[in-house]
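FAQ

Q: What does a record look like?
A: Structure on top, sequence underneath. For example:
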């Protein structure tokens, strides 16, 4: 199956129990989102339309819904196209896509500085390792392996 990127239209943003329309609400209300769901229009397990949510963690640095809200607000300020992919950024007049090679390069940069302190080296890190590391973290937290399989859509 071909990879289908998440687009602006795939984001389901909530403020409490109220679902916000990305293109109708002011940026301040979107920034206050307490829950964001990403809709899988297609996936390898064949389930269409499933929404996986990111809740507000409260951390100013490591909050998944805050990070996604920032991405949405950035793109929303530059385009009103609901089919615009989330993994893009604009520099000057040109749009660029963030690739897994791009992310791996940045992860390697961080690991060069922080990794040795924790026994992690650039050779240990790639974007593919993010998925397996998350699965391992759930396993180490004693989550039932069947639940991990479901969460990973394996």
């Amino acid at each position: 199956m071909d990879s289908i990127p998440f687009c602006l239209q795939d984001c389901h943003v909530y403020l409490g129990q109220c679902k916000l329309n990305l293109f109708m609400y002011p940026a301040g209300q979107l920034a206050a989102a307490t829950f964001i769901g990403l809709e899988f229009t297609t996936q390898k397990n064949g389930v269409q339309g499933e929404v996986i949510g990111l809740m507000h963690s409260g951390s100013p640095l490591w909050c998944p819904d805050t990070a996604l809200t920032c991405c949405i607000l950035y793109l929303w300020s530059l385009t009103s196209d609901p089919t615009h992919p989330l993994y893009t950024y604009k520099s000057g007049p040109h749009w660029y896509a963030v690739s897994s090679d791009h992310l791996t390069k940045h992860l390697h940069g961080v690991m060069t500085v922080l990794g040795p302190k924790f026994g992690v080296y650039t050779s240990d890190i790639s974007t593919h390792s993010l998925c397996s590391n998350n699965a391992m973290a759930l396993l180490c937290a004693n989550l039932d392996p069947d639940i991990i399989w479901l969460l990973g859509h394996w």
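Q: Is there anything notable about this one?
A: The beta strands are 11-15, 18-20, 35-40, 50-55, 88-91, 94-97.
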